[in-house]
Design a protein that fits this description.
Six copies of one chain form a homohexamer. Chain A is of the alpha/beta class and 285 residues long. Chain A contains twelve helices and nine strands. In chain A, a hairpin with a 2-residue loop joins strand 3 (93-98) and strand 4. The first copy, chain A, is elongated, with a radius of gyration of 22 Å. The N and C termini of chain A lie far apart (75 Å). Chains in contact: A-B, A-E, B-C, C-D, D-F, E-F. At the A-E interface, helix 2, strand 4, helix 6, helix 7 and strand 9 of A face helix 1, strand 2, strand 3, helix 10 and helix 11 of E.
Chain lengths: 285, 285, 285, 285, 285, 285
Amino acid sequence: MLDSLQQKIAPDNHPAQHDPMVGHRLTEEPYFRAIGDEVNLFEAAHRLRLPMLLKGPTGCGKTRFVEHMAWRLGLPLVQVACNEDTSASDLLGRFLLNRDGTYWVDGPLTSAVRHGAICYLDEFVEARQDATVVIHPLTDERRTLLLDRKGEVIQAHPDFHLVISYNPGYQSEMKRLKPSTRQRFVALDFDFPPTSDEIEIVAAEGGVDPALATRLVDIAHRSRQLKGNGLDEGLSTRVLIYAARLMRDGLLPLSACRLALSTPASDDAEICTALQNFAEAHFSA
Amino acid sequence: MLDSLQQKIAPDNHPAQHDPMVGHRLTEEPYFRAIGDEVNLFEAAHRLRLPMLLKGPTGCGKTRFVEHMAWRLGLPLVQVACNEDTSASDLLGRFLLNRDGTYWVDGPLTSAVRHGAICYLDEFVEARQDATVVIHPLTDERRTLLLDRKGEVIQAHPDFHLVISYNPGYQSEMKRLKPSTRQRFVALDFDFPPTSDEIEIVAAEGGVDPALATRLVDIAHRSRQLKGNGLDEGLSTRVLIYAARLMRDGLLPLSACRLALSTPASDDAEICTALQNFAEAHFSA
Amino acid sequence: MLDSLQQKIAPDNHPAQHDPMVGHRLTEEPYFRAIGDEVNLFEAAHRLRLPMLLKGPTGCGKTRFVEHMAWRLGLPLVQVACNEDTSASDLLGRFLLNRDGTYWVDGPLTSAVRHGAICYLDEFVEARQDATVVIHPLTDERRTLLLDRKGEVIQAHPDFHLVISYNPGYQSEMKRLKPSTRQRFVALDFDFPPTSDEIEIVAAEGGVDPALATRLVDIAHRSRQLKGNGLDEGLSTRVLIYAARLMRDGLLPLSACRLALSTPASDDAEICTALQNFAEAHFSA
Amino acid sequence: MLDSLQQKIAPDNHPAQHDPMVGHRLTEEPYFRAIGDEVNLFEAAHRLRLPMLLKGPTGCGKTRFVEHMAWRLGLPLVQVACNEDTSASDLLGRFLLNRDGTYWVDGPLTSAVRHGAICYLDEFVEARQDATVVIHPLTDERRTLLLDRKGEVIQAHPDFHLVISYNPGYQSEMKRLKPSTRQRFVALDFDFPPTSDEIEIVAAEGGVDPALATRLVDIAHRSRQLKGNGLDEGLSTRVLIYAARLMRDGLLPLSACRLALSTPASDDAEICTALQNFAEAHFSA
Amino acid sequence: MLDSLQQKIAPDNHPAQHDPMVGHRLTEEPYFRAIGDEVNLFEAAHRLRLPMLLKGPTGCGKTRFVEHMAWRLGLPLVQVACNEDTSASDLLGRFLLNRDGTYWVDGPLTSAVRHGAICYLDEFVEARQDATVVIHPLTDERRTLLLDRKGEVIQAHPDFHLVISYNPGYQSEMKRLKPSTRQRFVALDFDFPPTSDEIEIVAAEGGVDPALATRLVDIAHRSRQLKGNGLDEGLSTRVLIYAARLMRDGLLPLSACRLALSTPASDDAEICTALQNFAEAHFSA
Amino acid sequence: MLDSLQQKIAPDNHPAQHDPMVGHRLTEEPYFRAIGDEVNLFEAAHRLRLPMLLKGPTGCGKTRFVEHMAWRLGLPLVQVACNEDTSASDLLGRFLLNRDGTYWVDGPLTSAVRHGAICYLDEFVEARQDATVVIHPLTDERRTLLLDRKGEVIQAHPDFHLVISYNPGYQSEMKRLKPSTRQRFVALDFDFPPTSDEIEIVAAEGGVDPALATRLVDIAHRSRQLKGNGLDEGLSTRVLIYAARLMRDGLLPLSACRLALSTPASDDAEICTALQNFAEAHFSA
């Protein structure tokens, strides 16, 4: 009877007994539009398994790019959105307790290292110092991960590839990559796509015609000039797609712009008004 | 015998075995009075499942609006009042211990994601960074929630819709939505209702006649002009309803105003006197 | 055998199996002397179950008033002296561990909500933010308490009434009620009683004749003028009663004043001397 | 077999099964020399069970006085040296875990309240806020102690008497008794004893003749004038007794003074030299 | 049956039952090129077991040197990358819980002390104070390690040798070795290798011809002159090898330089441009 | 079977069942050279069991002196290197968990108090406040130690003697002995030994002839004049012995000086050069 009880609990407590990469494999090709040679460069870094750093503003497509590369390379993708409370344990795993004592549950990084996934640590500079340091032996010749709590050293799966990202325009003085970490990576710079590409993306993902997409991208360009003048970040491609979808769904363009662009962008009433004025200039005529 | 003991404990320890949304379904229609096209816009965002941000001052009706929309859409509503101690675990859930080891209890966000509720995170900017970040994969194409402690990735129920709110007039410099979070939402601005609407609300909810409600709303309007001059927030619609109910219950108007309006509003004696003077101007004649 | 062992432990670990309000019912009427219409106003707020805030200086009788109201209304009274370490768990309850795993023990607020008591949270502004926020759904239409750790939503007992207090003259800038909390309460201002009332209270509770009580109250009045000039608070009615009892017990008046009034009131030697001079002016002649 | 195992562990884990006041009863009369009417005043406060506050510098005899009063009144004495890490749990007690789950162990304050001891909380202002607040219901009419973790309310034993102390000359701005705590106590001021008394004490406790004691007390008097000029506190009676004992044990007076007085008193070389010069002025001639 | 279950778990929970130094022995000779007499000096310190401190910039080869020495001396090498969260427990070990209660798992330092490894604590100044202090008795005549949680004193294995490192050019004012720690070590200064050595290393490890390696090293030299002028650290030998490998893999030299040298080195656009200009000066002609 | 299992675990979990002072008894006489009357004064303090404070710079021989006194007095010596994370629990002990629940493990101070050792708390000012306060009742007439978590009061073994130390030249303003702690100790000042003594020590412990030792001591003297001018502490006797041993082992004198004296002493290149210049002045001629 104890056995059956144990089994009833097991699926919940021992998810790793199944394919541990379930939920990390992409089941359909994500939409992606290359801007430059980023696919090429990522593939080169991947062939040599050089750890990869992606730099760029919020919502410019870093995550989408990594998803595309995982799909293209046929690898599972383990993603972690790092924050100032992300500790080494959050990446490595921890001991849990069951009837027979403690047992170990791999964290996302350990899973990726063990089973050969791309591990994407988003906003990595936000993580705590101890999280930063655990990746060091993964990023040099050793390609090992030390689970110090278990006394286990894992040799990375040949397919394992580490990718981190951050937004260099937003990070504070306190939160920077230390040189000893930084010099373990090769890096790609990301930015918002060129106008024609962005129009095509908004049209394709928002389901609207290019003329409407053009107007939205133009609003975004004007917003990006406000950056630093009351706006932390210009409007991202993502929110343009939001606005496009709301219009396609039947909302009036000015309502859609207010809902998706000008109201969420800032808490400063003047900024919000300025953004809505951009929208009126494009849509009320 | 152990089995029966276990059963005696189970109801307490495994409340989720029943309908987990019990207590989250509204059993009667909440009073609500629309001011503009907010119902329309919410429904558009809901159809596309775009994450929704509500901005506005204390007691202006944001919570009531979300309750109304949950009732209208026939969805359960899971509410969390966030604060500076709200962590990712408070939203996601945690492991508890019983005789057979640890077992998992879903937090409010996980419950809503799993069972298809509207999840309303009130005063979301107050929450800790790690709580802020867990909603990211819920707010883009993925609509997934990662329970990193369990190694489980949950695909959101089709009905799940995320709504957050905060009061932009009150939050500190330290507590702001980061652009990488902000640009995942569409937003609605809330404010106190227009005079005629507010009078109708106070009369209806306070159970008093419109003439008396008019006098209370007028006091509130005068108080809102004191905002920033010693008063953090003007008198809310909610406290006007308190005063109205006390009067209907038989209290003298000036006593009711002192009890519900002028004494609680501030700790500055001059402000309290000014507010009570407004009341006397309306009620002692 | 295990069963009997369990029973031996149970009384200690499961005190809630008995009447959980034992120890919270007042067994004799507390001494109380009304100053104005505070009883009337409290009863009005109680009929509508409007959350009640009491403001006033240390030792002016707020606690005594709540005890009186609980006695008058025939309700149990659950008191919590809040401080800067008071967390939500301290109010809500927590899981403890026994042989069969964890079990839940209601905190004082949960007990009061469940069993229909007046819950008096003294010095509520001192409590931590997460404690402040848990009372929100208790103070609006919902009258619910969310035990997030258990996933339980409690509908408040019809008799439940929430009362909080603080001392507005003492709280720091950092510790203030946020408007979103403040505007959920009706409020009463407390202060030291008028002279004739205070004399009667000191005589009655201290067991001395009115002439002696008059001299003590006069010392207190003079001390209260020193407030802000080296003295954080003037002498309270409580310490006058201490001095009166010491005199009735046979101590010389000047010794009693030194012991109960001038030495404890301050660590500033000049202030202590000034207070003892007041005493000498009244008692050494 | 399990039973006997349990018993082997029990004495260690359940010390409270014996007389819980063992180790807290004074087995021999401590040396004490009254300076003024402090014994009288303490007895008056004790008869009325008024909480007692002792103020005075380091090493002036506060602890010795409380020991004397406990001996005189025939009561056990529970002492706690408070510090900035002293929490409510340190005073109240905590749950420990054994084979059958958690069980409660009374902390020192709870022990004293339950079994009728004098509880002496030394340097009470150093303790954390939550520790400060737990004594409130013990210090008014209620004389109750709330063990919130257990849900138990203890009515204080009739003999229980609370005594706290601090050094007003040393405490920082941050560490002060709040008025709401302070006005619950009667207070006695302590200082170093008058010259003739201090000489007698040093002679009696140090085992030296009055002439030698006189010289030591004179050095102390001169050191106390340096207070604030590089010396946090003047030499205490305790260290004079140390020096006296070392001399009686055969050490040269100047060596004893260097060892017990001038070297430990400060880390400032000039102050140490000044103190040793005082010693040379008295002993090298 | 429980027994077999236990055994199934044991390998995971008791890794120390096997050769505890597995995973810490170098299985192939690491590439290493001596620059001066560092091998000689390390061997002298090792013969006397004098604790060794290595100082030098990021990526200049300290880790590689220690690996070489471990290989040369035939000793296992236990490495710990210290960070600001590294505590004594992280080095010493901790108690874990299984079915029979707690059991101890040696931390990396304890393992090395017990089994006779070189223990290399990288970036040791980053570790917490308590971690710093545990090595003291290991670094004097005693050569003991105190496991205070276990009450065990370990005499170091005769082969045990302690090596620590840090980067003196990067550490903050707050993070410095205290003199009481510093004066327990002998020390070696490391820096980037001389030009001809660095060219040879880049050619050998990057798999490129010396002419190409020369150009890369020249870029690095120019970058190192920017140190302090916007660049925390000049380009390390490691990233030169990255660039070399990417070129050998077929990437255009300027793409490889952008990917491996100029983009990762800094978040300052001007610095990145300056570095890429160096690359263009060497590769575009 | 349970019994045997228990026994297998016991040696590890109950080390105190053997002689708890094993590992704390000195098995051979440590090298020690008295400079003044410190042995005499320590013995006087020990006879009266007066708590002893040793003040002096890093590496001047305080630890060696205490070891010598323990050897001389035939007492076990329990040493604790305190740091800013040292808490009361680290000194007193803690509860651990095994199959039968929690059991207590004495900390180093408790062991010494119970079994009659000299307890040497090195760098005591670094410890946390709660650790500072637990020694108070050990340092006056009571000579008791309160294990508040166990509710146990231990009367110190007659042989127990408390010794603490710190470096007055290095401690910060924040880390000072409070007067209420300081005035419980007698104190000895330590400094580097006089020239002739230091030469003899270096020659004896380093195994070199007095002429070579003289040159090393001369370098140290010159370094100590740099203290405060870029050097936190002058070269200690310990590092002179390191250098001497390296020379005896065959290293060139200048290499030995660089390895043991000039490189480890500072991270300031000019200071290191200055120190190495001192070495060259003595050894290169």
